[in-house]
Amino acid sequence: MGPHYLSRFFAPKSVAIIGASERPNSVGFRLMQNMLDSGFKGKLYPVNPKHKTLSGLTAYPNLSAISDDPDLVVVATPAPTVPDIIRQCGEKNVSSAIIISAGFSELGAEGKHLQDNVLAIAHRFGIRLIGPNCLGVICPGSNLNASFADGVVKPGNLALLSQSGAICTAILDWAASRDIGFSNVISMGSAADIDFGEVLDYLTMDAKTTGILMYVEGIREARRFLSGLKVAARLKPVILIKAGRHDSGSKAAMSHTGALVGGDHVFDAAIARAGAVRVYSISELFSAARILAKNYHIKKNRLAIITNAGGPGVMCTDRAEDVGVALAELSEDCITALNKVLPLHWSHANPVDILGDATPERYQQVLEICLKEQEIDGILAILTPQAMTDPTEVAKRLIEAANLSKKPVMASWTGGARVQEGRELFDKSKIAHFTTPEVAVDAFSFLAKYHQNQILLRQIPSPVSDLPAFDFSGSRLIIERVLSEGRDVLTAQETKAILAACHISITQTISVRSSKDAIIAAETLGFPVALKINMAQFSHKSDIGGVKLNLKTAEEVAHVYSTLEAAIRQKYPEINEVGLSVEPMYVASGGRELMLGVARDPIFGPAISIGLGGTLVEILKDNQIALPPLNAYMAEQLISKSKAFRYLQAFRQLPPANMAALIDTLLKVSLMISELPEILELDINPLIVDENNAVAVDARLKVCTPHQLAPYSHMAIHPYPQNLTQTYLLANGANIVIRPIRPEDAYMEKDFVNQLSERSKYFRFMQALHELTPEMLVRFTQIDYDREMAFVATTDDPNLPNELGVGRYLINPDGQSAEFAIVVADSCQCMGVGSRIMKTLMQSAKAKNICFLEGEVLAINQPMLTFMLKLGFSSEPINDDLIRVTKDLRQ
Questions:
Q1: Rounded mean pLDDT of the chain?
Q2: CA-CA distance, 374 to 824, in Å (whole number)?
Q3: DSSP per residue over 595-606, as a string?
């Protein structure tokens, strides 16, 4: 595994600053001073044609005048000069540039044109860009400060990733006063080229980073963003804040769902699905930074509170309830131990009120007991400065006890001057401290939510083969006919036909054009019936009085039909023909009305919502959101978060609703919108759920002509590509399955590598390797099927290992080539396993329009070089030790 392709941004050996200056208030001056003050150990080249020297260093008129090729170029000149500078970078073989300059897309169409010009030049030369309009990059561990931020940044274990330079400087200033350091600070600016996903991918593998803070204003590539976020959050807590939660300029959508599911709701669902935690204010982000800086980890969310005053304990209890933190139940053994060290009148419960006269020794003893309690995941110690309190000595005792345990310990020393010295001690310890107890509870909740979201992150949606065979081809024919007629909204009958093709239970709908047809339909279906407007231009039938229920006779049907037809013609004289439909009244004892919907988010694609249904859906605003694909656990969690969940339970004389049927319906909708990218919006309202079934009584679909180039490209999360699974018979008669890797393969992958010989490990990883690190395991098994692929060969044959081999490729930033690697178990070599894996890899890469498959092979690995030659790869020496092999997949 070589260096990450972004490593030159964060650990360059040489840096050129274009626009370096000696004017004290200029960006170029601050960049130079920051690089010098950071103690950068590489070569620094100031570029300014007006100077011979700058800050004691030789200044150069342009990049061409520098004899070396800088690893990194930082641009701080006016926007119109940037295209030519990037062209010079290409001519100097510079691959990495940070554009500090403003004046691009943020200024409108003209600036956007200039930015596009810069990107085109950069892409032509293979240059990657951070910015424009950014603060820069700071990596204290590499003695790099390529930014114009003020002040020195202390090394630490937190990474800060932000689209706003102002937010970066605010957090850095706050952190400096609290002795919090950073591993990396990256200001993304406009993120015209390198985006969040790529930087997250780098930070995942950065050993110096144990937690990540993010400030997000917008997402350009949802799939890349979520892919990087998922991999990072799997290994390190990621906490982010997003600006622009309320989009007043969003246009009205056709369906109820479209009106309710704003981008921010979908963003929430995406972040939870990726295993990260979202906060909603800068103060919360500060709290997250404070607790992440201590590198805490928890398994559950059970908090114990130790306090010398009852009031703060009660307030913390309320706050814990608000943010979903559970107060730990103290075991009998724990209470017995506390009884031995506390006065008779202590609270005998959590919060543990140790009374106002609590001594430093009492605090320490109680903390030590709570740290040993298995039912406690974290502890908050609260101190109010009373007459007999010694805040400083208590802080010393708590620090001493906390150092002997891995459990998170937080402190809230409330007050001012009397508690300041104690707070300063906490700053230099492993205890995170907060000025108010409620903020401390909030901070603990971030750790708890991170743990909860990890469960969601580990969920694997079911492969298509696990669900019934749906008639997708029939559904597409219906949609194509509707689009060919110039419509994009399906009638109720057309919508239900598609739902039925996906095995979703529906009530029958019969379209009618006359009162006679309506009577015949009613007699056919059986009374009572409902009569509804069935015209694409009327999305919300109830709003115009277009739904008449519980019609019990033919005479009533004829009368209502005539009345509805006349009312519509009078109100809408331009309509030539009135269309209505007849449906049976779905009578379900104890049926609950829900709404199940789908809306297409412009960034994250289709999103599924569920909540209370009926005509008051916009008023109730009960909609919980999830991104497809779903599995049963995700569907159950989605339902449990809605207000409808309690409505579905048994109450009074009603039996509980059939949750299994509702979950099954959600899974079918998830699969339907995954496989039919034509679907823009779906309303099933009401979806009636009773003790037996879940039935779509009314439904409406909006569709479009899909513009996708590859399967599932309309979705932010690529479903598991079950269609790539293949079965083969080896020459020895053993059956093997070659399939895309899954996250649950981590243990199998670890055992596979452990069983490899030292020689095979060295040939594969090109270094001495005992076993895969947790970071490597996650990186190898938690993949984005859109931009990379890994195939494992497995078998149930008892005479062979469970995993026979694995091959993978990762698409390079140019989008035209991919790096591959392959290794086969020592006992399975020369059996045809490697050939099968490589051919599968090549087929997959070719299907993604990859032109070249490239790999590096040790020169001493002659068997692999011979194998590559047989497969049609060409070879070229990189150096005395390495050979590059390349396959042109276009041939």
A1: 90
A2: 44
A3: EEEEEEETTTEE
How is residue 106 written in tokens? Answer: 């943020």
Q: In Å, what is the CA distance from 725 to each residue of 230, 462, 721, 736, 806?
A: 24, 14, 8, 11, 14
* Per-residue pLDDT tens digits for 129-159: 999 999 999 999 999 999 999 888 999 999 9
Dihedral angle, C-alpha 793, 798, 801, 804, nearest 10 °: -20
Written as six digits, the tokens of 853 are 């498959």
| CB distance 357 to 379 below 8 Å | no
**What percentage of the chain carries pLDDT values higher than 90?**
67
Tally of residues, the chain? 891
Q: What is the pLDDT of residues 600-629, one digit of tens each?
A: 998 899 999 999 987 667 767 788 999 999
15 Cβ neighbours under 8 A, 6+ residues apart: 35, 40, 42, 43, 44, 45, 70, 71, 72, 73, 74, 144, 146
Say if residue 463 is preceded by a cis peptide, omega within 30 of 0. Answer: no
Query: Would you say 174 and 183 are in contact if contact means Cβ atoms under 8 Å apart?
Result: no
Q: Which residues pair with 112 in a beta bridge?
A: none
CA terminus-to-terminus distance, the chain: 28
| Residue 794 pLDDT level (bands cut at 50, 70, 90) | very high
Rounded CA gap, 328 and 364, in Å? 19
**How far is the C-alpha of 530 from the C-alpha of 547, rounded, in Å?**
7
pTM for the whole thing?
Answer: 0.82
Listed in sequence order, the residues at least 6 apart from 733 whose beta carbon sits closer than 8 Å to its beta carbon are none
Q: Which burial class, exposed, middle or buried, applies to 838 when counting CB atoms under 10 A from its CB (0-12, 13-18, 19+)?
A: buried
CA separation for the pair 520, 506 (Å, rounded): 20
With a CB cutoff of 8 Å and minimum separation 6, the contacts of 633 are 455, 459
Asked if pLDDT for residue 63 goes beyond 90, the answer is yes
